[in-house]
Amino acid sequence: MSKLIFEVIIMNQKPILVTRSSMPPLEEYTNEIKSIWDTAWLTNIGKFHKQLEQDLIKYLGVDNISLFTNGHMALELLIQAMNLTGEVITTPFTFASTTHSIVRNGLTPVFCDINSDDYTMDVTKIEKLITDKTTAILPVHVYGHICNINEIKRIASKYDLKVIYDAAHTFGEKVNGQGIGRFGDATMFSFHATKVYNTIEGGAITFSNENIGKQLYKLKNFGIESQEMVDGVGSNAKMNEFQAVMGICNLRHITEEISKRKTVVERYRSWLSNINGIKIMYDKENIQSNYAYFPVVFDEKVFGFSRNEVCDKLKENNIFARKYFYPLTNTFDCYHGKFNVNKTPTAQHIAKRVLTLPLYADLSLEDVDRICDIILKL
Ligand SMILES: *Cc1c(COP(=O)(O)O)cnc(C)c1O
Asked: What is the pTM of this model?
């Protein structure tokens, strides 16, 4: 075998993971952190933390923001800050964090089914789930698909419920020009390494009521009101300065990152549109998308191969797609016997058939071609 051919084969075998973290140029990051060596101010709401808050308020088009060490703690402490009780209506078609954040607050998640169009909460099924114990609705803009915000708002005001959005997948998205963080009582964003935008680990809450902001600040800092008064049983969930600098740098490149993702998504669409038994998603007119994920639903009876078979075939080729979101959170082992998955049949149906294909800004179009070729030649 000639050396060249050998090298080409090796290159082709480099694994392709479902995502790859966005990073700024190394010098950009090291230049920014230099001043930390003068101040020795590493955390506790420092200069970079404050700067990132301002940068994000502008970019996300929101009025208020509170930064956290990760998205999950942001959500968990937000629920605590809102003093919710009893039951929270939510979706099982999500990452573990959404459901755990409710349960870890001593509340009961009540699972609403999803719709089969965009996999967000089926708003026609919410009202039947409301009881005298319901205090909030916690939907997820899953894969970056925006929930039916208007209908959720109508139901929430009719029954006097709070609305918290899990927008972990929705960084920077806009609806009719409005930042996605402006809807509901509050919205959680995740800045985890695997998300469209990252601060290594990190997260934020955007909110309208400044009282929530005060509560959040205390809860992420041990419930400390002042140096000599601690009047809340708080946690510790502050974002540190190194995370904040990563966020400041990554934000400078976000427009380009999202436009590269768009190119990848369009390439996938050019291959996988109008294939019998394959369902993919398209842009919506009034929504500025961030191209966070590329979920594909395989109908085995029509396509001829199941989601699991496609996933395994890709794996044989060193390509690691992920079964997001399978299993549903209401079937997790830690919740065994607590919830009836038959009450969310559409979520169950989609979870068994969906596969999210690799997608990140630097995924090459040749790799997209190869992935689609493997799928279509099964
Ligand atoms: C990533 C994610 C979270 C949690 O975010 P972290 O920053 O990883 O703690 C919450 N909800 C959903 C839907 C997510 O995908």
From this structure: 0.95
